[in-house]
């Protein structure tokens, strides 16, 4: 298994440009999510999905769009990049629903991150 | 989501045990206690989780207070590779979704 993969690793954008951050997983996980992490801070949830065709907003959704057309992929779109969106973006996946004490069902797997700089 | 409180930073020596505390005084009956850690320049990785009883796995042990208002992550013999930010997170399994709410975490430094 490749686990959770993210592309690109690093991207520089100009203010106003749009782009899509890619996230894919090969573990057949229903749940996928996007976080952003600003310097010295913890992760904040942007959007999440509990299955193909279902998405919902997290804590900081403004300026971002998502869609989930397949179980494997969960792209994050920046519509019009702003300097405030300079951050490291992490994608995560896991089984959905009530897993209880079974670690293999509860574990969220994170990708290596995409470092985004908006000038 | 119920909140957790952790020290901003801790320091320990290689090959010694490390006890990372977490307070969660507003924990509800359906909250599971999760620990993740984030090594430098990497995404977070799962460490351990539990509900009421103490838990052990190959990475660490989780000691949960009887009233569940606090917990301690125990690294039995720290190595330099254990230097990371450790996050204590409460997840309400009653809600079904796998949302994790990250706080600031504890930055653990290991001295050789």
Write a structural description.
The complex is a heterodimer of chains A (119) and B (112). Chain A has 119 residues and is mainly beta. Chain A is built from 1 helix and 11 strands. In chain A, β4 and β5 form a beta hairpin. The longest helix of chain A has 4 residues, at 103-106. Chain B has 112 residues and is mainly beta. Chain B is built from no helices and 9 strands. Chain B has strands at 9-13, 18-23, 31-38, 45-50, 55-56, 61-64, 70-75, 84-92, 106-111. The radius of gyration of chain B is 13 Å and the shape is globular. The A-B interface holds A 4, 31, 33, 35, 41-45, 48, 50, 58-59, 90, 92, 94-101, 103, 106-113 and B 32, 34, 36, 41-46, 48-51, 55, 57, 87, 91, 93, 96-105.
What labels would you give this structure?
heterodimer; A: 119 residues; mainly beta; seven-stranded mixed sheet; 1 helix; 11 strands; 3% helix; B: 112 residues; five-stranded mixed sheet; 0% helix; globular
Strand-helix topology:
The complex is a heterodimer of chains A (119) and B (112).
Chain A: E1 4-7, E2 10-13, E3 19-25, E4 31-37, E5 43-51, E6 54-57, E7 64-66, E8 76-78, E9 87-94, H1 103-106, E10 109-110, E11 114-118
Parallel strand pairs in A: 2-11
Antiparallel strand pairs in A: 1-3, 3-8, 4-5, 4-9, 5-6, 7-8, 9-10, 9-11
Chain B: E1 9-13, E2 18-23, E3 31-38, E4 45-50, E5 55-56, E6 61-64, E7 70-75, E8 84-92, E9 106-111
Parallel strand pairs in B: 1-9
Antiparallel strand pairs in B: 2-7, 3-4, 3-8, 5-6, 6-7, 8-9
pLDDT averaged over residues of chain B: 91
As a percent range, the share of strand residues of chain A is over 45%
What is the SS-derived class of chain B? mainly beta
Tally of helical runs of chain B: 0
Question: Helices and strands of chain A, in N-to-C order?
Answer: EEEEEEEEEHEE
Largest pleated sheet of chain B = 5 strands, mixed
**So what's the overall shape of chain B?**
globular
Largest sheet of chain A: 7 strands, mixed
Average predicted local confidence, pLDDT of chain A: 92
- Low-pLDDT stretches of chain B are none
Compute the separation of the termini of chain A in Å. 36 Å
* Residues in helix, % of chain A: under 10%
Number of helices of chain A: 1
Order of helices and strands of chain B: EEEEEEEEE
The total of beta strands of chain B comes to: 9
| Inertia-based shape of chain A | globular
| Assembly annotation | heterodimer
